[in-house]
Amino acid sequence: MPGLYVGSTSGYSGKNMIVMGLGLHFQKQGVSLGYMKPVGAIPTEVDGRLGDEDAFFIQGVLGVSNPPNVVTPVVVTHDFKVQAFNGKVENHVEPIVNAYKKISADKDLTLVAGSGSMYSGKYCGVDGIHLVKTLDVKCVVIDRFQKELNYDYLVVLKESMGDNMVGVILNDIPPTFMDEITTLIKPFLERKGVKVLGVIPKDPLMGTIKVGDLADRLGGKIISAHSRTDLPVESFLIGTMQVENFMTHFRRHRNSAVIVGGDRSDVQLVALEGECPCLVLTGNLYPNDIILTRSEVLETPIIIVRDDTFSVAKKMEDILSRHKLRESAKIKHGVELVEKHIDFAYLKKELGLRY
After folding, report:
1. Which superkingdom is the protein from (predicted)?
2. I want to staple 3 with a disulfide (CB 3.0 to 4.6 A). Which of 137, 188, 216, 319 is the partner?
3. In terms of Cα–Cα distance, which of 16, 9, 14, 53 is closest to 321?
4. d(Cα 75, Cα 54) in Å, to the nearest integer?
5. What is the mean pLDDT for each group of 10 consecutive residues in the chain (355 residues)?
6. C-alpha torsion sign, points 40, 45, 49, 53
């Protein structure tokens, strides 16, 4: 039975979104689907059984069920790494092969989700390239735009995997880069034998995080407008500049949280009146009564954090680029993006599926 490995050039590239989008599409077409994530990077226990957090979640979305040790035969814990780096390397591939055989036995298609990049796990023999060849499955590679694309990496992967690699999906592409994709990058890749299966544009909703979740991730405390913690945050601005300069930047960036020192009431007031989704006040400094009152009146939450402004900005950057896909509205939207932008006819032909 055919299998499809979904890998990427780096972590946090959108593998979960693509796996869910592909899986739900094929299921709608009447394809019986298997799912596994051979290597789990986020150890989680459910009912006393160790598995991977993403694998548990995606099984729920796809409505499939197998024991955690079958879905994710290799779970990377701290002890696992210590043993591997000390040279106590067991054969981790064999249980993956056996699990794949079990899951795929009566299925039309089995989705195999990668972990990290295609080279992640090389230290213990379970990297994506090795697994694709060993399981003899087809592979799609996601490359998420982060300042640029990894076109060299994609060509090297094609050379490494040959016919097993059916194509690439370019994800999170900003509008300003679309023309370059169409006129330069896509033709270049396809001349090198790398089929571009889809180009998924950058989408504001997919990059948002709710104010309440943001506070949790920053280790902060919400002190006002508690009823509006579901407001979406798309990006952030740092309020360290003069008020006049800040106002110019702020007008261009809606849905941006404003990170500012707790003692900068001038910038705080401008941000509140400009309808930002939330204020993040650094240095564990509480605002004055005027700011707190305006926050309640305008229903704009204020988050208090202990860290300095620079540290919070760095955390915010990581959070917004690595926020996990968990909300139902985001999942639905992500699946629609996959449906709209992936060449399913080509993929179906390469997988030998008939529906």
Report:
1. Bacteria
2. 137
3. 14
4. 12
5. 95 93 95 97 89 94 94 94 84 95 96 96 94 98 93 96 97 95 96 97 84 93 94 83 61 77 87 88 93 94 94 87 71 91 96 85
6. negative
Record the tokens describing residue 293, joined without a space.
């009152």
The pLDDT, as a whole number, for residue 246 is: 62
Task: Give the angle 350-333-255 at the CA atoms, nearest 5°.
Answer: 135
DSSP 281-340: EETTPPPPHHHHHHHHHHT--EEE-SS-HHHHHHHHHHHHHH----SHHHHHHHHHHHHH
- Beta-strand pair 33-36/109-113: parallel
Can you list the domains of the chain with their CATH numbers? 3-202+325-351 (3.40.50.300), 207-322 (3.40.1390.20)
pLDDT of residue 30: 94
Helices (H), the chain: 15-28, 53-62, 68-71, 78-85, 93-104, 128-135, 151-161, 178-180, 186-191, 211-218, 243-252, 265-273, 289-298, 309-322, 328-341, 344-351
Query: What pLDDT, in 10s, does the model give residues 224-237?
Result: 999 999 988 888 88
Q: Are 195 and 169 in contact (CB under 8 A)?
A: no
Longest Cα–Cα distance in the chain: 66
Residue 100, classed as helix, strand or coil, is: helix
With contact defined as beta carbons under 8 Å apart, do 37 and 64 qualify? no
pTM of structure: 0.84
